[in-house]
Amino acid sequence: MPTRIADAQRRSLSDPESFWAEAATAIRWTRAPKRVLDDSRAPFYRWFPDGELNTCYNALDLHVDTGRAEQLALIYDSPVTGTLERFTFRQLRDQVARFAGALAAQGVVKGDRVILYMPMIPEAVVAMLACARLGAVHSVVFGGFAAPELATRIDDAQPKLIVCASCGIEATRVIAYKPLLDEAITLAAHKPKACIVKQRSQLTAAMVAGRDLDWDACVASATPAACVPVAATDPLYILYTSGTTGQPKGVVRDNGGHAVALKWSMQNVYGVQPGEVFWAASDVGWVVGHSYIVYGPLLNGNTTILFEGKPVGTPNAGTFWRVIADHRVCTLFTAPTAFRAIKKEDPEGKLIRDFDLRSLRALFLAGERSDPATLVWAETQLGVPVVDHWWQTETGWAIVANCLGIESLPVKHGSPTVAVPGWDVRVLDEGGHEVPRGTTGALVCKLPLPPGSLLTLWNADQRYFDAYLKEFPGYYKTADAGYIDDAGYVYVMARTDDIINVAGHRLSTGAMEEVLASHPDVAECAVIGVADELKGEVPLGLLVLRDGAARTPEQVVQDVVHRVRDVIGPVAAFKLATVVKRLPKTRSGKILRGTMKKIADSQPYKQPATIDDPAVLGEIDASLRDVGYAKR
Ligand code: COA
Ligand code: AMP
User: Fold this and answer.
1) Least CB-packed of 234, 301, 406, 455 within 10 Å?
2) Helix/strand/coil (H, E, C) string of 24-48?
3) Hey, which of 368, 389, 444, 509 would you mutate to test ligand 2's pocket, going by the most ligand atoms within 8 Å of its Cβ?
4) What spacing in Å lies between the alpha carbon of 499 and ligand 1's midpoint?
């Protein structure tokens, strides 16, 4: 392997404390850390335990104070509303300080949780940073989740206050958010003290007297708040992500390690220098939005783009190119599914030729496996390096990437390249032994994880330990399977649990099964992820009905599709279900979901030796064919 990246990997793993101590000098601390790593409660590690800082200060005020006050910090580009707004670092700092004052006026103090249920509008970014300014812990809930999902998060995080907008805009549809919030608060046992609502011009939300406050009025009467120093180890945010059950996992991120890692990653992973324009086409509700719409670029003194639109249909498949050209974007980060959508509408890339894309230096893809066809299409059309990189909500930043800021390695299609410095990636067999190069197994990272990765799960240390650290002592289990080749290139092939990836969104089939099973006519069910040309995977439900079911099979299918939308949300994209006579199982009663997935995707499969009744597989094959799958 060439030297620069190998050298950085070696230094980061042989002496992580001096590696990260050096990176930490790029952050402005109110009390510089003297200790780098606290391993006294291993496997619970803490970075920079005696450091103190404010993340919002580092993201905004620092740049105002050091010559970037008039540089653009945020560009809000919203083709769905026809709006373009620009904020300098000074303007954004002032808005954030005022909104922090509004939160403080409602009694929000350091350590309090604030849930944000917001579309992609500047107020979402302002609210996140305002929480960070006060040392309050934000938890952003993606707008595509339904009220019961929001209620679960309200009960887990116990927010003092919730910030919401009247609506989101999905292509041409206005989606009312506020009624979903009202319903969630009714469902939740915990009640917030107040809700601050941004009324958008597209829809005015009805307010609940005595609880709901108008964003604009709160801000108008607010006194700007100063940055509150917090311990490096204090939580900055909680971000819920799908687990194997309907109970999501509240990933907790700290302030110090997060700031150090993200700033380091902007320059070393993405190769982006302060002053440049960086665009992560994602949503603030996902980790990519947290790390690379908000915190990473701002910590690094970049201009970040907040894009309220879709890769296609807002207004067409040329919208990404228009944004790059208009704002001179140097680096774009999105999910492969966005490129599949663009490629489907404009296979020859004709719309690309309408724009001057000379500012673009690289495209980064993550969120799901990058299929080589899409990757090659993007490389050919854009003529810039296309970097697949692998990471997770839990890790907060890339585990495996082609670190363009350190050294650009040759690309091997199908691999996100090599371990990023700080990450000690290994492949283990079921017994926890390392496997030879080229052999597939569980992808794990040796502890301690680098700064910026999750501290724990909110109020659930034991669940954190059980989910990630228990199976392979001394390692973090990523729940992805894959292999490492002789040159150290990592290949990420599949999840080892029931998580599926739908249009770059991470969803739990277990959570969907819980919804299906709650239908009175459903005796048994399974949800599998089946291959989809656009979204990568989509969920498909298989239902066994009770004897004497009250509703017809067609009605039950309709019911469960509606139920998943109402309980989990439209983001689940659950539109396919079919009734089957029985489900294939092992003799011990385990449902053979993996085998059904292979049948649906027309992949070769071996009949499991432990199968209870092999005849069921033929029945499943026929049922899947009826709904357009299993076509060989
Ligand atoms: N608020 C309310 N509803 C939302 C929503 C939000 N923030 N985000 C999505 N939805 C709804 C959509 O309207 C859609 O509803 P529908 O079933 O009524 O059509 C459903 O949730 C599924 O949304 P989505 O997965 O976005 O599918 P889509 O068909 O609208 O668009 C793509 C497909 C590929 C264009 C889109 O998924 C995309 O742009 N993906 C980019 C990937 C990405 O951002 N990944 C994040 C991690 S990097
Ligand atoms: P999320 O937590 O939503 O970011 O989803 C993380 C999961 O998405 C990972 O565990 C992988 O299964 C998948 N994933 C993310 N990036 C990649 C990638 N570059 N290649 C393969 N899978 C990926």
Assistant:
1) 234
2) HCCCCCCECCCCCEEEEECCEEEEC
3) 368
4) 18
**DSSP state for residue 354 in the 8-state scheme:** G
Query: Can the peptide bond before residue 122 be classed as cis, meaning omega within 30 degrees of 0?
Result: no
Ligand 1 pocket (Cβ < 6 Å) reads 119, 143-144, 168, 170, 175, 282-283, 286, 288, 310-312, 335, 337-338, 341, 367, 503-505, 534, 570-571, 573
- Ligand nearest to C-alpha 336: 1
**pTM value surpassing 0.85:** yes
Cα 39 to ligand 2 centroid, rounded to whole Å:
28
What letter would DSSP give residue 81?
T
Q: Which residues contact 63 (CB under 8 A, 6 or more apart)?
A: 69, 71, 73, 89, 298, 301
Q: What is the Cα–Cα distance from 558 to 578, expressed in whole angstroms?
A: 10
From atom 44 of ligand 1, which residue's Cα is the shortest distance away?
Answer: 282
Closest ligand to residue 344's CA? 1
Q: Which atom of ligand 1 lies at the shortest distance from residue 571's CA?
A: 21
Low-confidence ranges of the chain (pLDDT < 70): 1-2, 632
pLDDT at position 630 is 87
C-alpha torsion angle, residues 140, 143, 149, 155 (rounded to 10): 30
Using the mean position of ligand 2's atoms as its centre, give its distance from the Cα of residue 570 in Å.
20
Contact 411, 362 (CB under 8 A): no
Residue 49: closest CA among 39, 36, 32, 31:
36
Surface-to-core class of residue 336, CB atoms within 10 Å of its CB (0-12 exposed, 13-18 middle, 19+ buried): buried
pLDDT at 2: 59
SS3 state of residue 332 = strand
Q: Rounded to an integer, what distance in angstroms lies between the CA atom of residue 467 and that of residue 479?
A: 9
| Binding-site residues, ligand 2, Cβ < 6 A | 241, 287, 366-370, 388-393, 416, 478, 480, 492, 495, 501, 506
**Beta strand ranges found along 440-572 (DSSP E):** 441-446, 456-457, 475-484, 490-495, 499-502, 505-508, 522-532, 536-545
* 3-class secondary structure, 210: coil
The residue among 398, 53, 397 whose CA lies nearest residue 255 is: 53
- 309: Cα separation from own chain's centroid: 17
d(CA 98, CA 126): 9
Q: What is the pLDDT of residue 247?
A: 86
Q: Which structural domains are found in the chain, ordered by start?
A: 4-309+389-482 (3.40.50.12780), 505-626 (3.30.300.30)
Q: What is the tally of helices (H) and strands (E) in the chain?
A: 20, 32
The ligand placed nearest to the CA atom of residue 119 is 1
Q: How far apart are CA 319 and CA 322, in angstroms?
A: 5
What's the one-letter identity of residue 533?
A: E
Torsion of CA 365, 367, 370, 376, to 10 degrees: -20
